[in-house]
Amino acid sequence: MATVRVKICGITDAAGLAAAAEADAVGFNFVATSPRYVPPAHAASLIAAARALPVGVFADPDDALVEAAVAAGVRALQLHGRESPARIAALKNRFGLPVWKAAGIASAHDLRALARDFPHADAWLLDARPPAGTDRTGGHGQPFDWAILAECSPAKPWILAGGLNPGNVAQAIRRTGAQFVDVASGVEEAPGVKSLAKIRAFLREARHGRP
After folding, report:
1. What is the pTM of this model?
2. What is residue 89's predicted lDDT score, i.e. its pLDDT?
3. Which CATH architecture does the domain made up of 5-208 adopt?
């Protein structure tokens, strides 16, 4: 069986980056309302020391922000906003980087809509729908119903996110067949504050967890 890939998202400091050294990807959040926000200049100093794929996390960014993040070193764009298919095509054309489109999943209908509207994204990141009244589209620590993936299997590369933590990630992988998982709040002591022990435990469970 192929090794499950892991992305540790919301890296804000060198200690968190060091704990995530064995991850396949690390995420840098450029959404100003997020507790994991880092400005591009700070991200650049972290990315310079990163061994994993550096991913920029955005929600409806303008070109100037994406350009600053790319200059800082990000090598993939993860979009959590209301970006249109045309906007995704424009970003791919301008920056030449992989684009991952995130979507909140509450039913098989959401997966079918994702396939219909964003066939040209390089991957889909499947998250839970955000709670009502929030202005953030991700990072809420809530899972969606994984049984949806048995009903409607994604037709292109996908990443499982939403409510994962060291205690449930092995089960999530077994139930969904995920080959790539993403975690942010599930490896934190407090919003935006990474737990080095939880990061290491998540990596261990994602790759070697057993029933």
Report:
1. 0.93
2. 95
3. Alpha-Beta Barrel (3.20)
